[in-house]
């Protein structure tokens, strides 16, 4: 037997990991994952091809058959793909395997920017709007992709905290920081334990400063941290440690943090499945408390408009946005007008 856990890690068939694993042979192969499709149907091809080589043809054949098709034919092709892979997929939801798991409540928490933060955001938005849209008009979206990614990243960071880009800005000059403090002062006083996720390490470091100034006890984890086991154990077992600040990429998988009953996502990731994996660090077998999940979204910002585009666009196989490049590949000129619209209502 060859058994792959978290098999979505071989979703890119161009990586050395995928190529090395593809050379292994065994009578039986299993691929285990909670998110078989994170970016596009190519993710699924890579995992199916590992388990059953040739079932879906070559990657090029697969893309021509299921991806490069007119919109009116997409649903028919998806139904066809489902029939092909059905005998090789066994799906079990969390509710099916753990009937006694406590309920999960998700809340989208809209956040107002501070006045100074709003001015900074508007300045950068106007700057990038003209630059991006003019370049797209001259060169097309494909050749403007890197500039679009840069612009979206800057705007998302300012929506979190302008001090991510300018260290001279006051620590409290962020709507998210102010809301987080209000929530934590209430939750920590009631004995709750909280997981706090962000994809921006520099934002997490600013949150660390808030905790230090408040005298709150916490653990911290990003990609550079080595003693993960000690920090996880301390959060789980030490009643004085009430919060765990975690980089989404470093701590979104493989951690058991059932001591937490609150999860706060400080900023949205392109793919909600990645956020769900992070939430499942708390909401998993062994949890005996109801879990509350708060997702911070800044009003009248690119965060809100990205969610709007996710809802508007019906992508192949209910494809979810997962990465900057994957997101940009799906954009149209109309989408860019929405993302970089300087009016607060986004219309």
Outline the structure in words.
Helix 2 crosses helix 3. The strands form 2 sheets. A 6-stranded parallel β-sheet has the order 3-8-7-4-6-5, with helices on both faces. By secondary structure, it is α/β, with parallel strands linked by helices. It starts with a strand and ends in an 8-residue tail after the last helix. It has 3 domains: 90 residues, Tandem AAA-ATPase domain (Rossmann fold), CATH 3.40.50; 135 residues, P-loop containing nucleotide triphosphate hydrolases (Rossmann fold); 92 residues, no CATH class. The chain is globular, with a radius of gyration of 22 Å. Helices cover 46% and strands 12% of the residues. It has 15 helices and 8 strands. About 3% of the residues have low confidence.
Question: What does this entry show, briefly?
Answer:
This protein is α/β, with parallel strands linked by helices and 347 residues long. Helix content is 46%, strand content 12%. The protein contains 15 helices and eight strands.
């Amino acid at each position: 037997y060859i058994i792959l856990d978290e098999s979505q890690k071989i979703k890119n068939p161009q990586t050395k990991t995928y190529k090395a694993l593809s050379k292994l042979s065994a009578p039986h192969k299993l691929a285990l994952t909670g998110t078989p499709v994170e970016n596009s149907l190519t993710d699924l091809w890579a995992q199916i091809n590992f388990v059953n080589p040739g079932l879906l043809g070559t990657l090029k054949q697969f893309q021509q058959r299921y991806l490069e098709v007119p919109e009116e034919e997409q649903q028919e092709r998806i139904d066809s793909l489902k029939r092909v892979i059905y005998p090789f997929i066994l799906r079990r939801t969390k509710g099916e395997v753990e009937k006694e798991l406590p309920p999960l409540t998700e809340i989208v928490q809209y956040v107002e920017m501070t006045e100074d933060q709003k001015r900074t955001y508007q300045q950068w938005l106007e700057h990038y709007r003209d630059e991006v849209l003019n370049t797209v008009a001259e060169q097309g979206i494909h050749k403007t992709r890197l500039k679009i990614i840069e612009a979206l990243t800057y705007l998302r960071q300012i929506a979190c905290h302008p001090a991510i880009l300018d260290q001279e800005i006051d620590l409290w000059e962020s709507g998210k920081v102010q809301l987080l403090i209000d929530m934590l002062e209430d939750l920590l006083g009631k004995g709750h334990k909280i997981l706090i996720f962000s994809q921006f390490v520099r934002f997490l470091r600013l949150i660390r400063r808030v905790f230090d100034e408040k005298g709150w006890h916490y653990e911290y984890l990003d990609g550079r941290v080595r003693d993960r086991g000690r920090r996880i154990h301390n959060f789980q077992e030490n009643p004085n440690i009430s919060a765990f600040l975690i980089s989404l990429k470093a701590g979104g998988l493989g951690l058991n943090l059932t001591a937490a009953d609150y999860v706060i996502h400080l900023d949205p990731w392109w793919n909600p499945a990645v956020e769900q994996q992070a939430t499942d660090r708390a909401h998993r077998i062994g949890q005996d408390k109801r879990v509350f999940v708060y997702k911070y979204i800044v009003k009248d910002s690119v965060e809100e408009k990205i969610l709007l585009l996710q809802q508007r666009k019906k992508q192949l196989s209910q494809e979810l946005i997962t990465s900057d490049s994957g997101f940009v590949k799906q954009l149209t000129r109309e989408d860019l007008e929405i993302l970089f619209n300087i009016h607060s209502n986004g219309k």
